[in-house]
Design brief:
With about 70 residues, this protein is an all-alpha fold. The chain has one domain. Helices cover about 50% and strands about 0% of the residues. The chain has two helices and no strands. The longest helix is centred in the last third of the chain and has 25 residues. The relative contact order is 0.14.
Length: about 70
Amino acid sequence: MKINRLSVNPRVTFDPTNEEHLKEYAIYLEQGRWPGNCKFEIEYPYLEIPAMINAKLARHVLSKYMNVARVSIE
């Protein structure tokens, strides 16, 4: 007897420095769908994964500019 198992894909935390995570999000933005199933877990206080990813990307990029701005001011 063959036993069917549900494939459980563990969720991962989106990392804005991870190239694979960025590629998956780029596919979502271009095609309106995730490549396969979305593997990212939703984090509090967000209600939607795309909104969460946008916020994380914005914080990541802005932190780079803020560090540059601090160095320029000092």
